[in-house]
Amino acid sequence: MPQMAPLSWILLFFFFTLIYVLFNILNYFSFNTSASTQEGKSNQTQHSLTWKW
């Protein structure tokens, strides 16, 4: 029914927004930065200091 089209658009908007937020939350918490060793941290800072465009 054409009268129900706005409801479908709102439902799709919330559905895709929820998927987007969940995807970002899962990506944010999937990386464990505290598990890296001290040697890895110093190596990482060395690379970031010498990195050029």
UniProtKB/TrEMBL annotation:
Name the InterPro entries for this protein: ATP8_metazoa
- Transmembrane stretches in the record are 6-26
GO cellular component labels? mitochondrial membrane; proton-transporting ATP synthase complex
Q: What does the annotation say about its assembly with partners?
A: F-type ATPases have 2 components, CF(1) - the catalytic core - and CF(0) - the membrane proton channel.
Q: Which family does it belong to?
A: Belongs to the ATPase protein 8 family.
One example GO MF annotation:
proton transmembrane transporter activity
Q: Where found in the cell?
A: Mitochondrion membrane
Name any Gene Ontology BP term: proton motive force-driven ATP synthesis
- Keywords, ordered alphabetically: CF(0), Hydrogen ion transport, Ion transport, Membrane, Mitochondrion, Transmembrane, Transmembrane helix, Transport
- Write the protein's name: ATP synthase complex subunit 8
Membrane-related topology note: Single-pass membrane protein
Task: Tell me which species this is from.
Answer: Torleya nepalica
Q: Which spans of this chain does the record mark as coiled coil?
A: none
Pfam families given in the database record: ATP-synt_8
